[in-house]
Amino acid sequence: MSLRKVTSYANQAFDTSGEDPAKLADGSATNGVFVIGGEKPPPYEETPKDEEAGGADRPQWNNQLEFLLSCIAMSVGLGNIWRFPFIAYENGGGAFLIPYLIVLFVIGKPLYFLELVIGQFSSFGCVRMWSAVPAMRGIGYGQMIATFIVVTYYTSIMGTCVFYFIQCFSKVLPWTECGKPWTDENCYSAASDSLSNLSVHMESSSEQYYLNEVLKMYNSTRGLDDGVGAPEWRLTLCLLFSWIMIVFSLIRGVQSSGRISYFTALFPYVVLITLLIKGATLEGAGEGILYFITPQWEKLAEGKVWFAAVSQCFFSLSVGFGSITMYASFNPFQHNVYRDALIISVMDTFTSLLAGVSIFAILGNLKHSMGADSIDTVVKSGGGLAFISYPDAIAQFDAVPQLFAAIFFLMLWTLGVGSAVALISCVITVVCDRFPSWDRRIVTVVLCVIAFLIGLVYVTPGGPYVLGLVNYFAGDFLIFILALLETVCLCWVYGVGRICTDVQFMLGIYPGWYWRLCWFVLTPVSLLGILIYAAINMGEPEAEGYTFKGAALVCGWLLGAVAVVMPVISIVQTYVTRKGNLRERLSQCVNFKKETWGPKSQKMRREWEAFKETHRHRNRSRRKRVCTIEVLKIHPPIQGLDDGVGAPEWRLALCLLFSWATIVFSLIRGVQSSGRISYFTALFPYVVLLTLLVEGDTLEGAVIGIIHFIKPQMGKRAST
Q1: The model's pTM
Q2: Which terms does the UniProt entry file under GO BP (predicted)?
Q3: If you average pLDDT over residues 142-170, what whole number do you get?
């Protein structure tokens, strides 16, 4: 994706460098990704601390590399190693890869870049960034609550990694032995037993060790019916250790967490590649890898697979949690976040695929060793897959398996640190932005202590079921809705045009058709469509074979209600506190104030205002010219049909083909398929129309147009 230099705006004179100004404004100089509007951003440096900086004391990264590595450590975390393999396992292996990659391209990547841009442009966290659309500040608070909930169970996985790391220093790895108090007659050891004649009902020693000795988990028939039980003291100490390390990582803000990222971002790849090489050499590994990459086409019609793909994309990239916006807010104004977004999204996908290939190679070996008919029957699904399959593989290492096991679980823990630091930092930033006089170190310690106390519920015998419940409603459902609201409000209310102008001013590059199409249409429509389909076909929530009911289900829905309640409260509060008539209040709810939105430096803000005025008339003429000449390619009126109709425009022909293909798929099963699609086709237009009504009603001169529409012209009626 090459970028072509055109002109520079931020902190520079508005010149066109010899280019045609019309081409700069109308988007003709585009490669589909960016229309270039500026020189290469300046080297990474501190924001000038002039007398009008307006907040230049905000902490910043020590250097460019620390920001990039911190983002990689945040996005490439336990979501890739711990969560991605078992989500793929539960959704058909290769059948999950296609939706995941599509979702990553259409939803994940555009949202990641959007959050980076908004955070860097405003220098605000996930709440104060909503100065762009004041009534939607509740979305930021909802993200803060969801992020805090997720980080409490995220660190419990880190605590489990610490426990395994300590056990690696035993003379014999404890999960390789049967005949222990935590095993039963169905136990077999992947390290020592002959597996060729095993029954598929048997369980590996690593699986029984994880469930019975580490978690001491209640069986699925009991679940949460008798409560969660008391915290397991060893896991409690491991959880406490993890939180202490997180506090030390955050005590000095981004200056300390940035330095730690050198290790947390790079070390995991050394271990993963080692495990991949070892796993690929095991007998039967190829069959497992084929299961991972071979799609089951019938699964693509299941809404839950697409919902799982979006959830995994959010969890892996950390999109929708607010942490991306928070990290970008500590950047200099002209830092090249476009390049960083590409690098991070590629690295995240690469890591997920690397982890998936590694773990499915191991599952293929287990299937071959057990003589099982299918990989589906080799091991139980769930978050413990990484604590069962990986230890089985390590147990088969010929030399010093203890060393490789220790390195592996240290890697898992470091992955968790990178993501947990970002998640809790998001909450800390929201609090410190709201109360700037509070000592950040005290806020950090208090929030981490509260999170640790809440996290004790996950190290109880019923903890895995609570984790599944919270992950379903807070990690999936809640973040999904908040990300949808964030996309709609930023791209439709604040406006894609404004976002593109802000990007052009900040980076000197104008987003091309891919970004604009995703932001305005594909991303919000895809999110809404998948959400509606998943809601219609939603089954009873369950985890580890236990179906939630009663009080547990009520608590889960209360968590999910935060996604709706917080924005609603924010809308009502903003409307009530504004002054004026209905139209004026609505305008103040959805339109930003010049004093509260824009670049943080007052000098830069004035240049931004001048830049918008300079390009406003160009954008208006561009829309008319692009529609008539570039899109429709209409003949001049003097030519008309004298020379025939001409050849079909290939892009419109492809769009027409896509439309007819969609209609065919809607009708292929008669009313059964078209009926389900009607949920979306009947409801979605109202969402867009209401959004356009609110936005249009607040525009200057809108009342004149409305009066012209409703006021009858009696003279014209008589003339007919």
Answers
A1: 0.73
A2: amino acid import across plasma membrane
A3: 89
